[in-house]
Amino acid sequence: MASDAEKITRLEREIEELKAENERLRRALEEALRSAKRQAAPFSRRQPKAHPQKPGRKAGKKYGRRCRRPLPQQIDEIVEVAVPKQCPRCGGGVWEGETVSQYQTEIPEARVERIEFRIHVGHCRRCGRRVQGRHPRQTSQAVGSAASQLGPRALGLAIYLNKGLGLSYAKTTAVLEEAFGLRVSRGGLCQGLARIARKAIPTYEAMMQHLRGSPSVTPDETGWKVGGRLWWMWAFSTPQITVYGIQDGRGFEQAAWVLGADYSGFLVRDGWSVYRQFVHAYHQTCLAHLLRRCREMGMVLGSRAGRFPLRVQSLLQQSLRLRDRCAQQQISPRGLAAVRGRLEVEMDRLLQANYRRPENRRLANHLRREQDALFSFLHCPGLDATNWRAEQAIRPMVVTRKVWGGNRTPAGARTQGILGSILQTCRQQGRRVTQVLQQLLCSPQSKILDLAAPTR
Fold first, then answer.
1. What is the mean pLDDT of residues 267-280?
2. Does residue 311 belong to any structural domain of this protein?
3. Residue 87 falls inside a structural domain
4. Is residue 334 domain-resident?
5. By residue range, what is the domain housing residue 321?
6. How far is 110 from 178, CA to CA, in rounded Å?
7. Strand runs (DSSP E) across 206-326, as ranges?
8. CA dihedral 436, 438, 444, 450 (to 10 degrees)
9. pLDDT tens-digit series, residues 198-221
10. Cα separations (Å) of 33 from 27, 30, 318?
11. By C-alpha distance, which of 451, 444, 399, 62 is closest to 242?
């Protein structure tokens, strides 16, 4: 048995460690309280660097990539600029020597184009039904009180400003009036967006079908307000398409409404328990979330109690380095399998231990649930190890949420999800958004656009 002196020494050492941890936690609490009272105007997350790099281009080889605006291939107007007859400095006479060129790429003066469609109307000789003509540039067949409408280019730009860039209806109407002299009410704009969303439903459903057949899908979700109540905005992304769904819950039923309950591809997701209910899918949990959690736990728990999360962090970082070596063909498949096996054995050994701190127990329980999904990307080269794709896809909607909060009605949320899916998919594929929207607007009936195949 340990002597009294050894017990006293051990207790004194533990007391010193607890004092140091208490002081560190006190400073962290004070910093958190101060940061909560700071103004949010600068949006600064950390303190500025003590010795930042000098701004501007560097001299010599460190200048970086040299580039300039290319000369235009087509010239629409030539303007002759005569030399002054007198020197602006001394007033002396000037003789002309040479002619040089300067090029300017300018936006033409915007103007509103007003079109009248003279629609010829007739009746069927057999059934007597009223029949009227339709031009490919028309967006609908409405006449009478609804005869004055916005054109497809104007509506397409309004959709891009409102749903793509996050401008409110009021700001969208202000841009249209300032840039083009086009006056439109917020209500009329809202009705126009709802009309094109209804036409886009078949395309939206086709995108969901393509999503359900994709070999790999990355999902994520975030809060969304509809009528002042908490709903959820789901994002499901692949390398080709992104599908949004704004729904009134965060459960498996809502996720399966978009992805399908029997999805059997790879699901690269975070640790939300709902995703584990896709029992037919192969899972890869997001390592970025786990690394951040381990790093924060190591800062809070200190050097002694934080050994477990730091060891987990080290194993996850080793797996990412192994993935990079495999991608660079620096390791053979046999070597990859051997190192992967050692990582899995080491992780299993860590998770078999019992931990006293509640934080460590919670992390260990979470890792035990996710153990089969930790290193799936090492078994399937090319599979993402994080859910970065969904994080990127969800960002435009988060910006929109910060600007004007959400939607007032479920119908507006439906419009937001449909049009947002088409806009984000066009961004991924490098398509012209306005051209895609014009195809939907000018179609007599709802049509399915093939947005599965990327076109650049």
1. 95
2. yes
3. no
4. yes
5. 287-379
6. 10
7. 216-226, 229-237, 242-247, 266-269, 282-285
8. -10
9. 989 999 999 999 999 999 999 999
10. 10, 5, 36
11. 451
Strands 229-237 and 216-226: antiparallel
| Helix, strand and coil percent figures for the chain, each rounded to 5 | 50, 10, 40
The residue with tokens 């007597």 is: 128
- Total domains in the chain come to 1
DSSP string, 308-369: HHHHHHHHHHHHHHHHHHHHTT-S-HHHHHHHHHHHHHHHHHHHHS--SSHHHHHHHHHHHH
Residue 373: the pLDDT is 95
Contact 313, 291 (CB under 8 A): yes
What average pLDDT is seen over the chain? 88
Q: Looking at per-residue confidence, does 273 or 20 come out higher?
A: 273
Q: Which residues, at least 6 apart from 173, have a Cβ–Cβ distance to it below 8 Å? A: 183, 184, 185, 186, 189
Q: How far apart are CA 418 and CA 151, in angstroms?
A: 20
Residue 261 within any structural domain of the chain = no
Residue 46: pLDDT band with limits 50, 70, 90: low
Q: 92: which residues sit within 8 A by CB, 6+ positions away? A: 86
**Using CB atoms within 10 A of its CB, is residue 249 exposed (0-12), middle (13-18) or buried (19+)?**
middle
Token pair, residue 118, equals: 């003279």
